[in-house]
Structures are given as structure tokens and as C-alpha cells.
Amino acid sequence: MPEKRARRHFSQLSEFERSLSIGMKTAGWSTCRVAGQVDRSECAVRNCWEQWTREGTHVWKTGSGATRTTTRREDRRIVRQALVDPTVTRSTIRADVGVAIVPRTISRHLAEANLKSKCPFRALLLTPEHRQLRLQWCQARSVWNVTYWQKVVFSDESRFVLGTDDNRVRVWRRPGERYNFPTLFYVTLSAQLV
Prior knowledge:
Helix content is about 45%, strand content about 5%.
């Protein structure tokens, strides 16, 4: 049996196929013969027929997944907390909501609201003094050639973490909100470091 046919053979019955198989079973056809006619497994046809005889309907039940642990109101509260304070953590949200939910559930609710956990954009808050010092630094090194610049190491390029927690702050934001105020962190530097 080809792979495509094998997958189709064990997939769910469509509304038309469910009606057709019930009609054939009512006419006296065997389960094996009906399964061969609609090109589905005997188990799917048998389950459809049992549902028809037990409930009197052939409609496929929806919503058969896990029950919800949070109400709609609690879902809105989760999203509201992330919008009011973008730096709030999932454990803080779980404690505030007061329902025993896993962090993945909180992330899923926030993803449904188009909020994703991102690193905040860090902008330097440059004062006129900082600008003047940077200009002087650049003018003093404007005559450097490649051999001088090869000896320079910029220490802000990489971040090395020796422990398990990197202590980074993350923010909940929507796409396109990178430079908005609540998700933008200003870093202030002393005049000697600039």
C-alpha cells in the first residue's frame, strides 16, 4: 500500500463519508465491505456505526481535547499583566492569577494575544557631555591605520555565562514594538566610560 494511501486510510472520516458509511451499514453491508468502499479503516467505520446506534447522530464531536484550567477572565488577566508590566515573569503571573497552571499555558495565552518573550532593546541615554567625549575619542584615533585597530578588543561583543542563570531581563512585546517606551531600556553610563 503506498504511503499516501496508508495515511489516508487511517485518517478521520469526512462528513460525507460518515453519512455514506451509515447508509451502507443500514442497507446491510458488512463493516469490511464499507471500509473498502470509502477507503478507510474498519475501525473508523465501526466507531462511526457505534456512535450512530448509541447516540443517533453521525456528527463528529469537536472539543474533545483537554479541559481548560483557566476561565476567559483569567486569560484576559494574564494578557493584561504582560501589557501593563512587560518585564513580568511567568511565575509572577501564575501567582497573581491564583490558578495552578504550568508556565507553558501562560506562554500559550500570551502568544494568542501576539505577545512574545524578547530581549529588550537597550538604548544609550547620551548626554551632551557623552557626545563631546565620544567625538574627542574618535578625532584622537582618526589617524590610526589597520595595524592599530587590530590590537583593539571591544569588550561588549560577547556575553559569557558560567552559571545556569544569565540574569537577563526579558520583555513581553508584540512584533513592531521594539522601540516603544515600556519595552525600551535606557542604559546610563558615567562620563569616564564613554
